[in-house]
Amino acid sequence: MITKFKKKKKDKSLKNKVFSAFLVVLVIFVTVFIVYTNWRINKKRNELLERASILKQEIQVLEEKNKELKEKKSESESEDFLEKVARDKLELKKPGEEVVVIQKEKQEEQVQEEEKSWWEKFKSIWTRD
Questions:
Q1: DSSP assignment of 81-121
Q2: What is the pLDDT of residues 61-99, one digit of tens each?
Q3: I need a labelling partner for 18 at 20 to 30 A (CA). Which of 28, 29, 37, 42 fits?
Q4: Residue 82 CB contacts under 8 Å (≥ 6 apart), including other chains
Q5: N-term to C-term CA, the chain
Q6: Could you read off the pLDDT of 30-71 as tens digits, one per residue?
Q7: What is the DSSP string of 34-77?
Q8: To 10 degrees, what angle do helices 2-76 and 79-88 make?
Q9: Beta-carbon neighbour count of residue 108 at 10 Å?
Q10: Looking at the predicted structure, is the pLDDT value of residue 9 above 60?
């Protein structure tokens, strides 16, 4: 009977050791899995925070552009702006106004004549023969 008791105790202790080893491995595996998952979540969170920061900056830039465009729109609806565009780009005038045309300066014409005379001189050198 004593021998049976020792055998049972050895069998139970072996089973307990195997079970304990399995539990230790399982706890280590779960801990590693949790740490790895936490690391991936933190990495993803940091990426998203950085992207959110970039998007906030883009929103600020777009809001400023929108504000400028609204100002230009309201400015373009004014009578003074429409009159300026009509005069400058469409070359229109108000009734009763006279249009003055400014011709090219004489200096430009003289430069063109000098270029022609230079060319004439060059041609005469080659045609002497």
A1: HHHHHHHHTS----TT-----PPPPHHHHHHHHHHHHHHHH
A2: 999 999 999 998 888 888 888 788 877 777 777 787 777
A3: 37
A4: 76
A5: 142
A6: 999 999 999 999 999 999 999 999 999 999 999 999 999 999
A7: HHHHHHHHHHHHHHHHHHHHHHHHHHHHHHHHHHHHHHHHHHHT
A8: 70
A9: 10
A10: no
Provide the 3-class DSSP secondary structure of residue 123.
helix
The pair of three-digit structure tokens given for residue 64, joined into one six-digit string? 């400023």
Joined together, the tokens standing for residue 21 give: 């080893």
Q: Which two tokens stand for residue 16?
A: 């307990």
Give me the amino acid identity at 55: L
CA distance 24 to 33: 14
